[in-house]
């Protein structure tokens, strides 16, 4: 970052470059009516970092009741019961508040939580002294979560307003609560998790006062935070370059055990004779190796080996983890607690269950077909499987990662079987006959036996794809009949 003059100039240019002229228009309109208005919060932080901002937050001292009158002809709606926020053509405009009204839940834009929703057991949460003695916009910024989010920018005067040293903390890569850290946490305990995510975002660290406050108040997460909000922070962390920083900061502050105990118990678990790192470190490196464009797959990477804790046994003097991919009950429990959807949990579970299936240089065509059928049965795409295998191997410090030619060879093997010209089948749906044909040919009634016979036929087709014709499969059925 540059000097104050260069900084404000860069902010103005960044704002213009990101097609935010409509934000200027809103600020201009408010100022023309005699009010003050500023861009505030995360957008200012992003502009200082010269990063694109997805949305802009405007703060004004204009009373919320007159906002619709100022913006006649615009789409204006009020948001939430507890917060003085208007949405003007998609832009948030917060009217300056004092006292308890001055706190807005920072679970990101578009999500507003009332005191009753978040803090049902503590009536004193989100209540604190009036701040009328402070000028605008400092009175609003004083109750934002972190100093790096407690800045405002006047786009007309090109002036940065930074009463709490947010710019300096951003330069030093420090996440610091604004004002009294204990009060900021008591207003919204989720801020402790957000602190870890912002450490991940800027690749920085926690201020000592922030760290101490989190250590003191971490148990508030258990009773005073809706876990779906924690889930949202986890998924946002998946978009950062190294989400392992997020998990490590949760670990350092004692929150990982509260949020994801299945991962926490692997922290000191030895990786065994075939690894040069602990299970936790292996999971961290695996997740970091996966694409931020696939957040659920990435999360699966961080969790893929947690079953090793339950599977760990000593065999012939060596630590082994046989069948660990099938032991995902604790992961499922954590994900349910965090309010992940059934579809999301099923996806992560399937990726974990399939990640140990081998695909080697000398894997036969028949074995590749069986692999594809196995993946199909679990609803996992072969590219997803391969991405996971590559990340898993790259995170093993005792072995060399796949080289580009290794990956190309494996992709080629899969493609050769996928795009065969014969009647290849990877599921019973691909077979040339169906359950009705089985019942009619064998003169049997609907039941479990029909499915078992179809599975047997699929196995035979995987062995020899050329027999996937109605005639050949019915011949096999008749052979079953004769055996009976």
TrEMBL record:
Residue ranges of domain Poly A polymerase head in the record: 37-176
GO biological process, one term: tRNA processing
Native source organism of the sequence: Desulfamplus magnetovallimortis
Keyword Phosphoprotein attributed: no
Keywords attached to this entry: Magnesium, Metal-binding, Nucleotide-binding, Nucleotidyltransferase, RNA-binding, Transferase, tRNA processing
Name of protein: tRNA nucleotidyltransferase/poly(A) polymerase
Domain of life according to the entry: Bacteria
Residues of the CCA-adding enzyme C-terminal domain: 329-473
Residue ranges annotated for the tRNA nucleotidyltransferase/poly(A) polymerase RNA and SrmB- binding domain, each copy included: 207-264
